[in-house]
Structures are given as structure tokens and as C-alpha cells.
Amino acid sequence: RREPLALINFKKKNEETGEEELASRLDHCKAKATRHIFLIRHSQYHLDGRADKDRTLTPLGREQAELTGRRLASLGLKFDQIIHSSMTRATETTEIISKHLPGVKKISTDLLREGAPIEPDPPVSHWKPEAVQYYEDGARIEAAFRNFIHRADAKQEEDSYEIFVCHANVIRYIVCRALQFPPEGWLRLSLNNGSITHLVIRPNGRVALRMLGDTGFMPPDKITRT
Questions:
Q1: How far apart are CA 37 and CA 104, in angstroms?
Q2: Residue 167's closest CA among 133, 149, 139, 144?
């Protein structure tokens, strides 16, 4: 729904000629800027927590978030916003990262919460959620993709740099959808805690993956994939 032709109301006519000025109207609807999307997986957390509020970051997880924050700050980019999952581990990761990016606004959303996006192909034996979970989580995660991963608005003049702090399943699914790969293959990708994935969305809608799950900025003994 962001193709220029889809944004034009063909019922509107030029008052003088009675003909549609299609070329100029198309140009007015075309995106001009590039969006840079940085998808950050949350840091290591306490797996034994019974409820979400108990699944806080481990001491190592807090170190990982500090390293990720420093890495993002070192890029020298003017980040527009940090949108994060409302789950505890993502919120805590965001708070630590944001200390290294002062002034960047933070927005919490339930759309980016962890879940089961779509039944993986090939299937795996160690992870088999109830079928209903795919219907509940899948619709929400697909909504997150459609809401956040798109070309820039036609009114956007300058390139933007946005950070999304969420979860491995969400990021893997988004990457497959953004690159137009079969989404059922999402579980074939693997992401470390605190890793950085960088998507670029051009004005014409083309998407490129510049970085997938990068943790090269972390010492080897700090890298985990829990």
C-alpha cells in the first residue's frame, strides 16, 4: 500500500483540463528517503523466571547490552527512535542501550513481543508450541512487520535510522519477510544475544540486508545464544 499508484485518488481531476496529471501526482507520492532499520536481540536473561517480570537480564546480559549500546553509539548515526518489545528482557536491554544514545526517544509496543510467528519448515523436535499459538502470535508478529517494515513516507525528506529491540523469533521472521524469502524458513537463522541486524529500505521499496546477527564487537567470552 505504499506504491505511488496505490496512493493516488483517480477520481480527482484537474479542474482546468479535466485530465489527471498522473506524472506529477506520482512524483508527489514517491518516497525520497532511505530507512535504516537496526534490529537488536535482547541480552541474556534468567531462563528460570516463571513470569515475564521474573525473566530479568543476567549480569552477563547487562554487560552485553552495554557493549551493544557502545557499538551503536560508535556508528556516529543520528538515531530517530528506539521501539522496543514490552517484555521485561527487551525493556531492560533498551534502558541500558539508551544510556549510550541520550536524547533518543523510546517507544514500547506489544506487537514486538516474543512468540511463534509461523510453523517452521523443516520442523524441529525440540520446540513444538501448540498450534493455536501460531494463530495468536503469528497474526501479531505479521502486524508488527507490516506496521514497521516499509519504505519511507513520501513526506520524509532525510534518511532515517531506527532501532528495534525485540526477540530472536520476531527478528528472524521479519528478515525473511523483508527479503521476500519463504517465512517458514525463519528458524534456520540464528541470532546471538545483543546482536545487531541491519536492514536498509530504499525509496523504491527494495530491501537489503547489510548485517545479520552481528556480535563481532563483543569479546568471545561474552557471546551467548540462549
A1: 15
A2: 144
Q: For the chain, what are the domain ranges?
A: 1-30, 33-222
Judge if the upstream peptide bond of residue 220 is cis by omega within 30 degrees of 0.
no
CA distance 168 to 212: 11
* Cβ-Cβ contacts under 8 Å for 110 (sequence gap 6 or more): 85, 86, 140
d(CA 108, CA 89): 12
**Rounded Cα distance, 29 and 5, in Å:** 8
Q: Which of 141, 92, 132 is nearest to 114 (CA)?
A: 141
| CATH top-level class of 33-222 | alpha beta
Identify the bridge partners of residue 13 per DSSP, sorted by sequence position: none
pTM: 0.91
Give the tens place of pLDDT for each residue, 73-91. Answer: 999 999 999 999 999 999 9
